[in-house]
Design goal:
- By secondary structure, this protein is α+β, with helices and mostly antiparallel strands.
- It folds into 3 domains: 2-83, Roll (PH-domain like); 90-228 and 354-359, Rossmann fold (3-Layer(aba) Sandwich), CATH 3.40.50.10330; 249-279, no CATH class.
- The chain contains 9 helices and 17 strands.
- It has helices at residues 70-83, 104-118, 133-140, 155-172, 201-207, 212-221, 250-259, 268-278, 335-343, and strands at residues 2-4, 7-12, 17-22, 27-32, 36-42, 45-53, 59-68, 90-95, 122-127, 148-153, 190-195, 224-234, 237-242, 284-290, 299-304, 321-325, 348-359.
- Strands 8, 9, 10, 11, 12, 13, 14, 15, 16 and 17 form a 10-stranded mixed β-sheet that branches. Strands 4-3-2-1-7-6-5 form a 7-stranded antiparallel β-sheet.
- Helix 2 (104-118) packs parallel to helix 6 and helix 7 packs across helix 8 (268-278).
- It is elongated and about 75 Å long.
- The protein binds adenosine-5'-triphosphate.
- Residues 96-100, 128-131, 133-134, 153-157, 160, 197-199 line the site of adenosine-5'-triphosphate.
Length: 364
């Protein structure tokens, strides 16, 4: 026998929904099981922590307290815990204390750590001291001991961890990474992002909000989504993996210039691009991409000092496609020039595939 306030209630966990109804069958509470966070049992009291989604896409923790017969409370507790068995339990957390406004560590301690504790999540927290450290950590870390990686920082930290993870997976699978025709082996380990950086574009894209506690809750709820990853090659060598934006021309110049003013913090993205725009240069570029659908012919887009957009749908996560770009060349190319170009040193190839998982609520 269980009670909600003074009402004697029946609780069911069927059809993916936890319902609490009065003896007269009036529905008193209804919570989707995927939004259940944790059930805490203290003798005859069972506190159910769950998440609600607000209109602004932020998630908020709520509680429901049931009390009554100790045995009934215990049974319901173990039923709820059973529904949570696939949630992440062990995480590697990589914090960049210098991200954005340098609040990464504070955000982790104040927002993430208490929620991790509530959900019995064991976190191995590493605070980075320098650039490239995340890549080194992921070279040798025992990945079989964890359910996911969490970054506390900006898009750059995520990209570096994604690079480290993808490189590690290729190494473990003996992939010839310098060969641009080789498929990238997908990583099965998800990467969650707690935003503490300058732009936090990926988190906004995933969750519709840059709220840090919402990101933590998405990670704890255990949803994930596949994401494309491109490998970028030059001169027969792998340069890097890219999962957010692969840019060149004006965009590349802007980002390059912004890096020189990292000391300015997030403000650099508002100021520095203006100067990059003023010293804008024309770039002749040709992009060639191969559709996932092998029946479709190879398409080619050419532009000289123009904005070039790839067709819609290019980044559909499940789509396997390849893009290739030649290095900046002078004059307009025809198809025979392209073949010549492909023999040149210094060409850049990019191959994209779905390879990395990011934490997200699947329904969003
Ligand atoms: N302790 C550290 N000191 C300096 N740089 C670091 C440190 N830890 C990580 N980095 C590197 O700093 C870069 C940017 O990190 P992050 O994305 O967290 O910050 P950001 O301010 O949002 O920058 P961006 O706008 O480039 O994303 C990453 O390449 C990351 O690896």
């Amino acid at each position: 026998m269980l009670f909600l306030n003074d009402n004697r209630v029946n609780v069911s966990l069927e059809g993916g929904v936890m319902t609490v109804a009065s003896e007269e069958n009036n529905l008193l509470a209804s919570i989707e099981v995927r939004y259940l966070l944790k059930a805490v049992l203290e003798r005859t009291n069972l506190t159910v922590h769950y998440v609600i989604k607000k209109k602004n896409m932020n998630l908020k923790v709520k509680t429901l307290v049931l009390h009554g017969d100790e045995e009934d409370a215990q049974m319901l507790h173990s039923d709820i815990e059973h529904t949570l068995k696939d949630r992440p339990r062990r995480l590697l957390v990589i914090v960049n204390p210098n991200s954005g406004k340098k609040k990464g560590l504070k955000i982790y301690k104040k927002i993430a750590a208490p929620l991790f504790q509530l959900c019995d999540v064991k976190a191995d927290v590493i605070v980075t001291r320098k650039q490239k450290e995340p890549t080194d950590i992921l070279k040798n870390y025992n990945l079989s001991n964890i359910d996911g990686i969490v970054t506390v920082g900006g898009d750059g930290l995520y990209c570096e961890c994604m690079n480290g993870l993808i490189a590690r997976v290729q190494r473990d699978n003996n992939v010839k990474v310098n060969c641009h025709n080789t498929d990238i082996v997908s990583a099965s380990l998800p990467i969650g992002i707690i935003p503490a950086g300058s732009g936090n574009v990926i988190v906004q894209y995933l969750h519709g909000t840059k709220c840090a506690s919402t990101a933590v809750l998405h990670i704890l709820l255990g949803g994930n989504v596949e994401s494309n990853v491109c490998s970028v090659h030059e001169g027969g060598k792998l340069l890097s993996y890219s999962a957010l934006i692969l840019g060149f021309g004006l965009f590349g110049d802007m980002m390059h210039d912004c890096e020189k003013f990292r000391w300015m913090g997030p403000l650099r993205y508002n100021v520095v691009p203006v100067a990059s725009m003023l010293k804008r240069r024309e770039i002749d570029v040709e992009i060639e991409y191969y559709s996932a659908n092998k029946d479709k012919a190879t398409k080619r887009i050419r532009g000289l000092g123009k904005q070039i957009s790839l067709p819609n749908g290019f980044m559909i996560p499940s789509c396997k496609s390849k893009i290739q770009r030649t290095k900046s060349t002078s004059g307009v190319l025809d198809s025979s020039d392209v073949q010549e170009c492909e023999k040149e040193e210094g060409r850049v190839y990019a191959v994209d595939t779905h390879a990395v998982m990011m934490k997200e609520n699947q329904e969003e």
